[in-house]
Amino acid sequence: MELRKKILDEAHASVFTLHPGSNKMYQDLKQKFWWTRMKREIAKYASECDMCQRVKADHLKPAGLPRTPKGYDSIWVIIDRFTKSAHFIPVKTTYHAKTYAKLYIVRIVSLHGVPRTITSDRGSLFVSRFWEQLQTTLGTNLIHSSAYHPQTSGQVERDEYLPLAEFAYNNYQKSLEMAPFEALYGRRCRTPLNWSEPGERVTFGPDLVTQAEKQVKFIHSNLKRAQSRQKSYSDKRRRPFVFEKDDHVYLRVSPMKGVHRFEVKGKLAPRYVVAYRLELPPHLAAVHDVFHVSQLKKCLRVPEEVVDTSQIQIQPDLTYEEKPIKILDQKQRSTWRRTINFYKVQWSNHSEEEATWEQEQFLQIKYP
């Protein structure tokens, strides 16, 4: 059992995997391991992960990114429509279309060539005159998507970890029933789970063409089946979630309106406070104890170590305010116009490891 636990921990919580779902974990592990009721145990392990229960959600409000030490505050996600292969590029919201065009050529054209068409959101960067002219020069038709949905993110890993996130994403796709790496390059990528294995045999000549044709037909078939499955899911009416007496749940709370740490609401920040019965604890005595089902999330396993939230001042409307409690470090960033002071701030109810760099001007305005 201890060996299984180590295998599951490595396949779920290491920096090479980044907390994948149970389906992806099973696809990774079944290549090398087997035990009785393996798939069921993997599903149970993934569903009971405390970090996943606190962070993952089906519907998230758009949010921005805190600046990293290198100044990035957004992630540009580029996905190939056919293979689902993705590129995650750290960018800044201050970038102009010319900068995005250079990144596009360096990161995409240099690896995959020039695409025939591109579907983009209707953000000003992508519909700017310069960007459209550049695409025309490269022989690309710019096709606008039906709605403007620029997906942003909250408190995520620093940009140094983006290659690992890209690696984890491209390692398996359920709709393809294979890894995007395999669809793109004709072979599976090497992971820590099969690090010691020799490389795969390379195919040349007519066999390569035959194998590629089979691969394309297989991908088309899986994509069509996945699209039909998704449509059937969306067409079905969702059953209401029913809670039983003595169930443990997470209660949704949110920062106070107008008071946001990092100047944004964190998409990936924990949004459910400690698991408890809706017999409210003493520090929530002022809160009405009847909650709509949308504010609750079932806790599948009560964690052994529970974060103490008694010091969090929850308002009657289930909001809370985070305040700076300590300055840990200071640095300056110079531009051609002025010098900007930054402070490393530890926030209330957070450890020093979760401290963030904030502009002096922001701190003076929000917390005079």
UniProtKB/TrEMBL annotation:
Residues 322-368 form the Chromo domain. Pfam families: Integrase_H2C2, SH3_Tf2-1. PROSITE patterns: CHROMO_2, INTEGRASE. InterPro entries: Chromo-like_dom_sf, Chromo/chromo_shadow_dom, Integrase_cat-core, Integrase_H2C2, RNaseH-like_sf, RNaseH_sf, SH3_Tf2-1. It comes from the Eukaryota. GO terms for biological process: DNA integration. Signal peptide: none annotated. Residues 44-158 form the Integrase catalytic domain. GO terms for molecular function: nucleic acid binding. PANTHER family: CHROMO DOMAIN-CONTAINING PROTEIN-RELATED, YALI0A06105P. This is Integrase catalytic domain-containing protein.
